[in-house]
């Protein structure tokens, strides 16, 4: 840290001559500069914002609540996706046409590229060795996550982490986050609901496997009284004032909850920030360029944040609409893909933040994600009843600690129409390799006879699993000058032992349950052998110094970007390695610690 401070002081102290020269040049180009600004809308014309937050997921929402409480009316959040009021998530085949994020001008390796801009809630990227699925909306990943709020349990989960960032030092924030999200295990039974078949199915499975079974804390709404769950669909305001419905076990969680029965952050952290502390919200906007300002309020590339930042963004669908804000503090919480890409472009492409650590982009992890499916188990698996994720089976082996993992039963929403539509878009008119694999797969499922898949649900003769483990966490993002893309390289072969162990476990479950077929996700089928993740992490890792990370792991300035002041990152991108558990709880806990450092106010469940 001392070395870093010396570097920062050197940079600040040598800006006299450079800064004066730069201001002179700016003055000489005043007419041009004014013309550029004239095409943009300044959203903070009267005074600088106290804070601007980019992204509204678990990390950004925590910042929005804490910082807007500290500076009411002077905090803005910028979110690329749209708001999703109750009942607005796509469900019909016609609505599915706009379910993905796609823009012809985007320089990203998108799985689905549409001819017209679409700002849907799903974004799917296709990188070397890894497909990534992330959320795009006001509430970030909480809109689509399965509800699991799991603390890291593997003894090696934080083995490589800096000392002050280790889980034992953020553990105190877990109960605070759980309290805000009203976390609890799914009630075994309650008025109007049957006991979850998948609980009894997986209890029996765990017993046969001689592995520990447990219920997860989950972020679903069953009313404010934990001892007396509301009947399905009953309405009640949560403790922050947002009206929600009690969960009806429809299993549509990962498509976005149209009943507001999932405690996504737009119904707690963000709701309180807006309704109690006048948080300013700009949704449907994409951030591109970030400029550190000098004492004259002008961009100066050698400045390091002492005088604030200017942030440029555009409308998410119409890139000709441009906006700027100026802020004293900038918090980047755009998710692992978004935050890493924003910083890489500003360090390498725009060169507006040149002093960011050269470790930027390193340490990507897919969190050991893997999917397993068993067709036709003899017992009812409850795949289509109840919240997406509510229980787990642990597979821990002292002789193979690195390749230990968790299996979580996965309730499947009505996604066949969506997947079929996506596959057809990729392989239109339907004779491509992915379509051929997909056609073979769906023929194996009893009940699927309509070639157009005009069914609103999956058959019940299926059991689906989501695995999470500790992967190599050594993927790397880099900027490609030729394509102007931020690319990701993932080493599938380095993780084959883990993936094969998960696949073998799926096969063993097939044998134990009398199933007819065990398989991974469709993209794992030969010849693709590609994995996917919905839990991307890393790229802006916490470190003890600029040589080991992008943001500081020191409690004194936790989460602050090395070489810059008042510039923070707080989302999954700062986690130094895979967790082997669902990351949402840890992301929010890390953000609580960062917000505590920024505001000087102790975290609590009061928002």
Cα shape: globular
Uncertain regions spanning at least 5 consecutive residues: 1-38, 446-460
**How is the main sheet built?**
6 strands, antiparallel
Strand proportion: 15-25%
Strand order of the largest sheet: 8-18-19-20-17-23
- End-to-end C-alpha gap: 33 Å
Radius of gyration, CA atoms, in whole angstroms? 24 Å
Instruction: Return the structural class.
Output: alpha/beta
Helix content: 25-40%
Number of β-strand runs: 27
Q: Could you report the average pLDDT, rounded to the nearest whole number?
A: 87
Tally of alpha and pi helices:
14
List the helices and strands and how they pair.
Blueprint: H1 2-13, H2 15-28, H3 30-38, E1 40-42, E2 51-54, H4 58-70, E3 75-79, H5 93-96, E4 101-102, E5 118-119, E6 122-127, E7 130-135, H6 167-170, H7 174-180, H8 197-209, E8 213-215, E9 235-237, E10 243-245, H9 269-277, E11 280-283, E12 285-292, E13 309-315, E14 322-327, E15 330-332, H10 335-349, E16 362-364, E17 370-375, E18 391-395, E19 405-409, H11 416-427, H12 433-443, E20 462-469, E21 475-480, E22 485-489, H13 496-513, E23 517-520, E24 531-533, E25 542-543, E26 551-552, E27 567-569, H14 584-599
Parallel strand pairs: 1-14, 2-3, 2-15, 3-11, 7-24, 15-27, 25-26
Antiparallel strand pairs: 4-5, 6-7, 8-18, 9-10, 12-13, 13-14, 16-21, 17-20, 17-23, 18-19, 19-20, 21-22
